[in-house]
Amino acid sequence: MQDNLEKPVLNALNENYSRERSFSFMENIYLPEIFKALWYTLKQMFSPKFTMQYPEEKWEPPAIFRGRPVLVEDEGQERCVACGLCARACPPLAISMQANEDSDDPKERYPDFFEINMLRCIYCGYCEEVCPEEAIVMSKDYDIVFESREEAIYDKERLLVPKEDLKERLDYLKNYRNQQFGQFWDFQEENNIHSVRDRDRDWNTGLSLVDMLEQQKKNDAEEATSTWS
Ligand code: SF4
Ligand code: SF4
Asked: Is the backbone of residue 211 left (phi > 0), alpha (psi -120 to 50) or beta?
């Protein structure tokens, strides 16, 4: 113990301590390193390129990509029932909405207004995770530009996208969620009474669930039209 205390200690406060290592002659003249860097640059000039000439060239993201959150439009109506779960789960409080009810409509609740402040959104996908109706999903849209704060607030009209244009993401979610949660989470569109009612274009509110499913099959067989790009 006593011996150890008498030995000089190697630390940065000791004047014998040297932080710098000594360079060899070749390192001191820098030339080999410069030629190595030039050789590396030359090699890169002929290697395959991973960059794109954006915006002339657009990247097509895969289904797993989380771009701008959008509302799913099912047969001309939003699937959203304004339950508020997504707004509750959103970490930066980017979502706001007001629920409304219309007794003449077979659909009980819908969002009177639904807004996402894209200046706040962090593309976390929590809204999509918690939505019980698969009414809000992450789209492939990453080309998001605005010139003022007001423009960055996307209202319901700008958020709604027909489900046909979101098919890839909806299919991905079905596979992903089913694998992740197994028997505990298996979203089945046909079990969603709300969605089934939405597809009842003839507003037959008195239909039984079995009849509504038949109606749904008939409607789904018709060719879908979409204007969203
Ligand atoms: S992606 Fe995340 S931050 Fe953006 S609206 Fe959804 S929950 Fe909020
Ligand atoms: S998008 Fe989904 S979670 Fe959000 S309010 Fe509508 S139904 Fe509820």
From this structure: alpha
* Residue owning tokens 């789960």: 89
Taking the centre of ligand 1 as the mean of its atom positions, its distance from the CA of residue 55, in whole angstroms, is: 25
- Please give the Cα distance from 52 to 57 (Å, whole number): 6
Q: What is the CATH number of the domain that holds 122?
A: 3.30.70.3270
Q: Which helix (H) or strand (E) holds 99?
A: strand 95-101
- Domain extent, residue 196, equals 69-217
Ligand 1 probe mutation, 68, 96, 127, 153, most atoms within 8 A of CB: 127
pLDDT digits (tens, 9 = 90+) for 28-78: 899 999 999 999 999 999 999 888 999 899 999 999 999 999 999 988 888
